[in-house]
Amino acid sequence: MSNNSDDRRSFLRLGALGLLAAPGILRATSSSAMLNAEVRALSFNNLHTDEKLVAVYWENGQYVPESLTRINHILRDYRNGEIREIASRLLDTLCELSARLESSTPFEIISGYRSPATNSMLRGQGHSVAERSLHMDGMAIDIRVPGRSLAALRNAALSLRAGGVGYYPKDQFVHIDVGRVRTW
């Protein structure tokens, strides 16, 4: 026999997953309401590993450790498998961004956590990555959202004023971090 809090938790999770699965539902939800909701969920598609994840990462006033572990895994450095804790502030920013975009589409991950070794290797190959990249601190992500233009994604991210926003139309992604507010 399950208790009422388990039943309620299951119901809330199913509701959050339904929001992510049903296009247009988020349109009625403002980003501030999203962060005040009882449940926060994110959906990802890692383009390098072909892994997909839908996770309720916050409910009942707290972060869900099992979900954070799963998110840390899908956002790992895919080149060497190294995992780092992803900043909860970044997850909340992505949740707000999803609401701002009125999108239930999974974020396509170009780059999540980047280990210092990978960052150094990329710099050595001439890629334009910052020497002290916030990717190495689990505070940055490079993404795109199917069905939304990169310009719309960039503009929505800028409107949040939650950190840095880099626009890479040639490489087809937007960089979002929770460092200081800046743009490039």
Would you write up a description of this structure?
With 184 residues, the chain is an alpha+beta fold. The chain has one domain: Muramoyl-pentapeptide Carboxypeptidase, domain 2 (2-Layer Sandwich). It is built from six helices and eight strands, in the order ααβββααβαβαβββ. Helix 4 crosses helix 6 (150-160). The chain is globular, with a radius of gyration of 16 Å. Mean pLDDT is 87; it is low at 1-16 and 19-31.
CATH topology: Muramoyl-pentapeptide Carboxypeptidase, domain 2
**How many distinct beta strands?**
8
Measured as a percent range, the helix fraction is 25-40%
H-E string: HHEEEHHEHEHEEE
What's this entry about, in short?
By secondary structure, the chain is of the alpha+beta class.
